[in-house]
Amino acid sequence: MLGQDERVRRAAAAALLLLLPLAGCSGGDTSGDGSTNDAAASSPSTTPSASATPTTATAAPKPRDRACYRLDYAAAVAPTTTAKPQDCGGAHTAMTYAVGTLDTVVAGHLVAVDSAKVQQQVATECPQRLPAFLGGSPEALRLSMLRAVWFTPTVEESDAGADWYRCDVIAVAAEGRLAPLTGALRGVLARPDAAARYGMCGTAEPGTSGFDRVICSGSHSWRAIDTVTFSGSAYPGVAKARDAGQGPCEDAARARASDALNFKWSYEWPTAAQWRGGQTYGLCWIPD
Length: 288
Hints:
Blueprint: H1 4-15, E1 23-27, E2 36-37, E3 68-69, H2 73-76, E4 94-101, E5 105-106, E6 109-110, H3 116-134, H4 138-142, E7 146-151, H5 155-159, E8 164-174, E9 177-179, H6 194-198, E10 200-202, E11 213-215, E12 222-229, H7 238-244, H8 246-256, E13 265-269, H9 272-276, E14 281-287
Antiparallel strand pairs: 1-2, 1-13, 3-4, 4-8, 5-6, 7-8, 8-9, 10-11, 10-12, 12-14, 13-14
């Protein structure tokens, strides 16, 4: 059975996988030559706040789909929640896009809500259901700061009969901070203004000391514009991962440049740790 610290860690890592630093290199001209910067990947962490364990609990009611919530970062990556729905027309940072029923039976036996089997069900279902809700292409989602987070009942609420899970979408403004959600979110990534509002940007050139991944509606100087997808299930190694994006990122930057002979670009490739976490693609960047 997973402890609460482990459940929080898994939720945070899944929600913010794409915000981890990748390895990167930059190109200053059409030659594609540039300095190489290796950025070490580090998993995001949160510390759950201490709270008294209730001695009794009732079955928490099934959440309402399309409800909105005002969550901070720590609350968004926690495994359970007590937040009350807010008016979606007002300030909010999370919106429910799917509600489902937990499968808590294995080989004819009930398992706990915080078991690996149940938690894996939710960790698979919620990310899989997000693209259909947001619309647009898979690449548009990869290039955005919109993420899936999920919640289940507490162990006590599950023991009392609660068997639901809730999938919410959030927008990460920067590490440890959420951005407000505005307007209708269904199909948002298919709209022309999606990248300006929810796109992935940076505070400096990727791979440099001043680089932080931020939402494009905030202050930034670089923008992620394309992805480099790898084939195969095994990590290709640093050299192949680095080399694979040079041509594609240079071409993507040239296509957007006002001067095809003088432009800058940067490429981030996935680390082995990120690959194991499911991030099997790199990112192309240009100044913005």
